[in-house]
Design goal:
- The chain is mainly alpha-helical and 58 residues long.
- The protein has one domain.
- The chain is elongated and about 50 Å long.
Length: 58
């Protein structure tokens, strides 16, 4: 592997790591990537957010 390829690979790995870190942080803070709009969700039955499930029951 030459130096430019290694640099690009390291930059891409850093970007992926930052994206994963943000996703984990958002999940811990209760931020939903789906927006919580179950009416427009194709995977509504598979929703794993308790507060959304609770809202759908009422």
């Amino acid at each position: 592997m030459n130096v430019p390829t290694l640099i690009v690979a390291l930059i891409l790995a850093a970007i992926v790591a930052l994206i994963i870190r943000k996703m984990i942080k958002d999940k811990k803070n209760g931020v939903h990537s789906c927006g919580g709009n179950c009416g427009a969700c194709g995977a509504c039955k598979g929703c794993s957010f308790p507060e959304i499930q609770r809202d759908k029951k009422t």
